[in-house]
Design a protein that fits this description.
This protein has 207 residues and is of the alpha/beta class. The chain is built from five helices and nine strands. The N and C termini lie far apart (32 Å). 51% of the residues are buried.
């Protein structure tokens, strides 16, 4: 058994609201002992595809999963995959969940109850959104009260709850993250462990 330190919600400058370069992101997480990250730019996988390529070329220990934070009609959802995803991302919750399954990944509900963010809010407990794999119960840029509602919702729905930085600037990198138990340090194992709620600890840092 191994402990894996992961942050699965990070934005590079491929997102209009982030100033972080991919090189800055990789350097921070590699040098601070993280096992895996996902770069989750808005509505596109481009940043994560570039980061994955650089990580492999440089022989980093850090595993880079493919990701995107997608805006749907009922709120944002993060999709994570372990294999190179398609260029076009669907915009309905049901289709995103299906895409994650097809590409051996998972879905995350980011900052679901933050009033100033485009989270799913109560849509999380209705319709297709109930099939989302994981709930972000601690977001480093979200007030404690809204994070606690997300945590309570995860408990009610029986969903794994994770912490992420949602970094857009250097000071946010690694502020919040999750430690999980894995059998092997491989992207597929990280996805399986998250789905099976093998979460050892969430680190609740805040901006």
């Amino acid at each position: 058994m191994y402990k894996a330190k992961v942050d699965l919600h990070i934005h590079s400058n491929n997102s209009i609201d982030s100033k972080l370069t991919i090189e800055e992101i990789l350097e921070y997480y590699e040098s601070n002992g993280f096992t895996a990250i996902a770069i989750t730019d808005h509505n596109e996988f481009k940043g994560s595809i570039i980061a994955n390529k650089i990580s492999i070329e440089k022989g980093l220990n850090l595993k880079v999963l493919f990701g995107a934070e997608v805006e749907t009609a009922i709120g944002e959802v993060i999709i994570i995959t372990t294999t190179t995803p398609p260029r076009n991302i669907p915009r309905s919750i049901g289709e995103i969940i299906d895409l994650a399954r097809d590409y051996n990944g998972l879905t995350i509900a980011p900052h679901p109850y933050a009033p100033d963010r485009k989270g799913l809010k109560d849509n999380l407990i209705n319709g297709d959104a109930r099939k989302i794999d994981v709930i972000e119960v601690w977001n480093s840029k979200t007030d404690r009260r809204w994070n606690e509602i997300a945590l309570n919702t995860a408990k009610i729905l029986g969903k794994p709850g994770i912490a992420n930085s949602d970094a857009h600037h250097q000071k946010h990198l690694g502020l919040a993250y999750t430690i999980i138990e894995v059998d092997e340090v491989k992207p597929d194992e990280i996805i399986t462990s998250l789905k099976n709620n093998r979460i050892l600890r969430i680190i609740k840092g805040r901006d």
